[in-house]
Amino acid sequence: MTPPPNSIGSRNVAVIGAGAAGLVAARELRREGHTVTAYERQKQVGGLWVYTPNVEPDSLNIDPDRTIVHSSIYQSLRTNLPRECMGYSDFPFVTRPDDESRDPRRYPDHREVMRYLQDFAKEFEIEEMIRFETEVLRVEPAAENSREWRVQFRSSNGVTGEDIFDAVVVCNGHFTEPRLAHIPGIESWTGKQIHSHNYRVPDPFKDQVVIVIGNQSSGSDISRDIATLAKEVHIAAKSDAYENESSIYSNLHIHPTIDRVYSDGSVVFQDGKVVFADAIVHCTGYKYCFPFLETNGYVTVEDNRVGPLYKHVFPPALAPGLSFIGLPSMALQFFMFEIQSKWVASVISGPVNLPSEDKMMEDVIAFYAKLKSLGIPKRFTHFLTDPQWTPMFEKLKPHEAVLISQSEYFNWIAEQCGCSSIERWREEQYNIAIKKDEDTFRDDWDDDDQLIQEAYRDFAKFKPTKVCCST
Ligand code: FAD
């Protein structure tokens, strides 16, 4: 059979990063018959889930020459999703009663996620494909008009080198480069400031008055963590989602966003209320960042839009040689990494075709135009979520929801590569979980027993000895 025009067969493929995305990408690429080399600058697999008490010296991460600490995980972190829906589809994230050191909770701590990823890497013998302590410095086309890619790297002993690949799959994560919101007057505000990337424990905030900016997952968790020791914690939030909510922390207060701050330490909120604070914790999210990528300006990051990318994965002019796994946020991450990886692996080897470059570009342009017409800023380009669960998208009409709905996205990819899409129970568990934000949601749930049963019925297909009921 004549290979399709954009097929390059079973090839040599580089994967950058061995976090949850890189691990499953390496597995899917090898399953498809490719030869895989994964570069990982840390000593071990796990990416973001490799907890470290170390933080960057520059607490707002502004200095471009600072030493990067990859992880943004704080000590008390527990997952914000139930374990059943969080795992990869064919390697259930179940409890391990055979090992007392494991966390059996349904919303386990970060160590348990790390152990799960280590188990996954071991089960599928992924480590043999990884070059640890090897940082990728540059990724670029090997020559003008070449379909090959040059990867330059430096190992921890300072040795540099380069390899040539047929394709590069970028899985470097996007929770390391902080994003800061501008606050009028902040230049003269004299209190302490940190970004959540550098938050680990509440101790430095003992007896202090602390402002936490942002009430998404990290802001919500960190404010409660700090409230255990601080005198007062004031959350500055865009949405009024928590306004009527009661919290077990009487020292936790919710406000609208900050209007401005002053050199006397005062913080004035949009409703005119004033708080004199010791510290501000910026839980304002992260920026996409690919310092190693050189595409002659073809792939750019503009107001957190990485583009042009066909379906958040392939840059039309460089596909299938360059691809990105894991860019969409606000979605079921591990499942998404897995299904995107299956698509990339099968496109690189050829059985699955991409449209022509022009057609992909048309699709991208139409997508951007649609976002614009709906008034959705560029920085939400990679938000993959159902608008009905996301206050900022609430004004969209149901037919517009498809634009950014994760299930539509997963179904579309599944159709491309002939694999299964998201299971009903997984999607429903996710939809229930992301609406929860009360203090106790991780330990007090009784609304999805039926879905748990469905999940465990599905899990029985895989490694039955390891599948036990969640406690
Ligand atoms: P990462 O885990 O960041 O891995 C990227 C890897 O690339 C790293 O190992 C890094 O060292 C490596 N790397 C980067 N640059 C280079 C380079 N130049 N050379 C070599 N190696 C490089 N998701 C959930 O599903 N459930 C949760 O409960 C959850 N909680 C979260 C809590 C926080 C605070 C944050 C920030 C995110 C959370 N997430 C959660 C989302 C989480 O990011 C994803 O689940 C997932 O772990 C990201 O995987 P990744 O592989 O894309 O990125």
Structure report:
This is Flavin-containing monooxygenase. Keywords: FAD, Flavoprotein, Monooxygenase, NADP, Oxidoreductase. Its cofactor is FAD. Its EC number is 1.-.-.-. With 471 residues, the chain is α/β, with parallel strands linked by helices. It has two domains: 12-177 and 286-429, FAD/NAD(P)-binding domain; 180-282, FAD/NAD(P)-binding domain, CATH 3.50.50.60. It is 24% helix and 18% strand. Residues 1-7 and 464-471 have low confidence and may be disordered. The structure holds flavin-adenine dinucleotide. Flavin-adenine dinucleotide is lined by residues 16-22, 39-42, 47-49, 70, 72-73, 79-81, 86, 135-136, 171-173, 175, 218, 292, 326, 333-334.
Number of helices: 10
Cofactors, ions, other ligands: flavin-adenine dinucleotide
Question: What is the CATH class designation of the largest domain?
Answer: Alpha Beta
Total E-strand runs: 20
Look at the structure and name the CATH superfamily of the largest domain: FAD/NAD(P)-binding domain
Can you write the helix and strand succession as a string?
EHEHHEEEEEEEEHEEEEEEEEEEHHHHHH
What global shape is seen? globular
In spatial order, strands of the major sheet run 3-2-1-7-20
Mean pLDDT, rounded to whole units? 90
Query: SS-based structural class?
Result: alpha/beta
Helix share, percent: 10-25%
Strand content: 15-25%
From the alpha carbons, calculate the radius of gyration and give it in angstroms: 23 Å
The CATH topology label of the largest domain is FAD/NAD(P)-binding domain
Largest sheet: 5 strands, parallel
- Tell me what the CATH architecture of the largest domain is: 3-Layer(bba) Sandwich
The total domain count is 2
Roughly how many Å apart are the termini?
52 Å
Low-confidence residue ranges: 1-7, 464-471
